[in-house]
Amino acid sequence: MKILFVDTSIRGHHAPYFKTLIKNSDYECVLCVPEKIENLNIKQIIVRNSNFRSRNFIQYCRWINEIKEIAESEKPDAIHFLYGDVFYRYFGMGLSKFKSYNTIITFHIIKKSFIRDISIKTIFGKIDMGIVHTDALLNQLQGIAIKNVKKIENPHCFYFENITREYARKTLGLSDHAPVLLAIGGTRYDKGIDILLNALKKVNKPFFLLIAGRELDFNKNYIKENIGPYKDKVKMLMRYLSDEEFYMCINAADIIVLPYRKTFTGASGPLAEGVWQKKTIIGPNHGSLGSLIKDNHLGATFKSEDADDLAKVINEQLDNKHQWNEKAESYRLTLSTDKFALDHKNLYHTLINTFLY
Fold first, then answer.
1. Do residues 163 and 195 make contact, with C-beta atoms less than 8 angstroms apart?
2. Average of per-residue pLDDT values in the chain
3. Element spanning 211, H or E
4. Of 26, 82, 185, 224, which sits 20 to 30 A from 4 (CA to CA)?
5. CA distances (Å), origin 201, targets 109, 193, 226, 229, 317
6. 357 falls in which pLDDT band (50, 70, 90)?
7. What are phi and psi of 304, to 5 degrees?
8. What are phi and psi of 262, to 5 degrees?
């Protein structure tokens, strides 16, 4: 069995996610990416035309054609596009070029509207299987009569045996005098760091805030301008984090805060990593995140995009520490890297055997 994997980035969660996906794989893997992933012992093909996120349709078409040429050369049994969100804008144009292969796409976020539903249906009509990571997204797709979709739980991807909580806090320069709140990941608009900064102005319980990740829509100057009342209780690591630094930040935290806006509807890497380390999760009450937190007793939710309600929930969680229970632990076990890799392997086998016979 030979699988051709395609991704549009190796940044952030992309590389760890892929390494988890092929963990202990006994099938042949070929990866198409815009730049090489280090310490990965499989064939990697650098794709030149990957810069179409800037809404460049011509670049998108060139990317599709380049992947088609690679597929013709490599002759895989299946092609797995790991970031299907890039197909929405162009209604999956070009996917028909891969109809002679088993085509699989993972969708991380799905937004609702009349036009988007048409795009999603069109895309699913051109592929063999779509993968999502939450029940909310699965139900959303099944609600518009899409059947060739499967849910595979978003896994935790990081583990460093030598990093203890005490070591992480000491290395990051965090004290034990107050609970540590963590906002981690690139500061995109949809991740709502501005909502959290406003909410913390009304939090009257002791806390320390760690902000870690790349500067994107909200830069370091914006953050400095909006933490005046509690500026002495904030540490910023505003840069691209290594896998080890990412793990260290999660390990050092008491509460992972996900102040995401309503436009964010998918699974969350920080949630999965936080749950694996049994951290309290605070997130919005909408979509996949709201369902995951409430249904699995992972922490608490606030009214989406409501800074006042977020402040109220943070105060409550600081005052009464969330207790890990059997429901939370049961969900935690579904985030196993072994299960994630095996679920994908079984899916590939099923599709390829069906295709052959």
1. no
2. 91
3. strand 208-212
4. 185
5. 31, 13, 9, 6, 16
6. very low
7. -50, 130
8. -65, -20
